[in-house]
Every structure is written in structure tokens, then in C-alpha cells.
Amino acid sequence: MKEQKAFYFNGFLGLILELGILFLVAYVSVNCFLESSFQFSDAVVIAVGLIVAGILFTGFTIVQPNDAKVLTFFGRYLGTIKESGFWLTVPLTDRKKVSLKVRNFNTDRLKVNDAVGNPVEIAAVVVFRVVDSAKAVFEVDDYEEFVHIQSETALRHVASKYPYDNMEEDKGDISLRGNGTEVSEEMARELQQRLEVAGVEVMETRLTHLAYSTEIASAMLQRQQAFAI
What b/e string do you get for 193-211 counting C-beta neighbours within 10 Å, with b at 16 or more? Predict the structure, then answer.
């Protein structure tokens, strides 16, 4: 499923067309009333005009800036409208709104065992936006919940690959505390791979909280102090 452009044109021109059809129906109706003659052709014109006007009315839609409308016609994906404004599109379609705005959220504080088995608390902020509305709507049930769950999964996976702190810094090994930028960049790459299916772009990830769990915090502090001495 890939996003494609839907058929639409200026809604004000469509409104003029709608009013023109209604004017024709009104003209025929008034003319029949004044002439006191009602022929079968007049009835056909009135009925068809009202039906067309009613169907055409269902095609009007408004798209706000940085929003998109995903169109489906009786279960078939027709395309997406991303351009903001007042439009007339295919009548009788279901139009689902998708926000294209940049959004962010903070993960919960997760308790994870680092690479050497020490329990640590870690949290991150994820900045993302939808770039493919069709994937966001049709490939996953709820893309926002999908982003939240996959973000926590990626955070757990990355946090478990490295130790909280590298006591022997001359080795140059990556640690969660000493290499926050590298850890955040790796999380962003992994999370982007996970969210590709949902049409979501990861713009940035940053660690917002990192600490030893309370049950070992004092012991690890004493270890750091002893190592420093």
C-alpha cells in the first residue's frame, strides 16, 4: 500500500456547479407551475437534477493545513488529498483525516538490564511525523499506538546492548551515560526501520532520563567512588 494523489478540484467551482443544477431544477419546477403543465420529461429533469445535486453534495471536503484526507470508495483506496483548502472530490467516499504535523511524546521510564546485567531506568523523547498517509491508515490499526509501542521496544533493545557506565574509559567502549548522542542516533535508526511499515518518519530521539534503579543506586555510587579513588 502506497500513498497516491486523489482526484479533486476547486470546491468553489463545484459549488457553482451545484447551484447551477439546483437553479435548473427550480426553473423547470416554476415553469411547470406557471404553465400548469407537467410533462414526463419535466419530471425526469427534476428527479435527475435533485439526485445529481444530492450526490454531488457529498463530495465537498475541507482540508486544514498540515492535514490529509484519505479517500476510500466502498472499501477501495482512491487516494489522498494533502493540499489545504476547499475541494470537490469523488462523491460518496469515506474521508479519514490524518495529521501530518510534527509530534513528539515521552516514553515511560522503563526498567531495563544493561549489557552487564545492572538494572537501570531509562526514558526518551521521540519526534515523528506521518509521511505516507496510506500506510498509516491501512497498514496498522492505530499508527500512534504503534509508534508508542515500537519506541519503547527499540529503547529497551538499545539500552540492553551497552553498559550504563564504562569504568575503564581508556577502552573507548560505548556506554549509556558517556555516549548519549550515539545511543540516541542508534535508537533513531532502529526505530525508523520498525516504523517504515506505518509510513512514519522518525525525526529525532533523545534520552530524557537515565539512572541506576533505586535498589542498586547507592551500591553503584560507592563503586564509582572507589574506582575514582
Answer: ebbebbbbebeebbbeebe
- Long-range CB pairs of 184-189 (<8 Å, 24+ gap) are 184/124, 186/158, 187/124, 187/154, 187/155, 187/158
C-alpha cell at 52: 445529481
**Whether the Cβ atoms of residue 97 and residue 68 lie closer than 8 Å to each other:** yes
Please answer whether residues 20 and 49 qualify as being in contact, where contact means their C-beta atoms are separated by less than 8 angstroms: no
Alpha helix positions (H), 78-204: 133-138, 143-159, 180-195
Residue 52 CA to residue 49 CA, distance in Å, equals 5
Contact call for residues 49 and 22 (beta carbons, < 8 A): yes
The model's pLDDT over 186-200, given as tens digits with 9 standing for 90+, comes to 999 999 999 999 999
Q: List for the chain the helix, strand, coil content (%; round to 5).
A: 45, 30, 25
CA distance 79 to 3: 7
Encode pLDDT of 106-165 as tens digits.
999 999 988 888 888 999 999 999 999 999 999 999 999 999 999 999 999 999 999 888
Q: What is the pTM of this model?
A: 0.81
Closest of 184, 120, 182 to residue 154, by C-alpha: 184
Distance between terminal CA atoms of the chain? Answer: 60
What are the cell numbers at 175?
Answer: 556506554
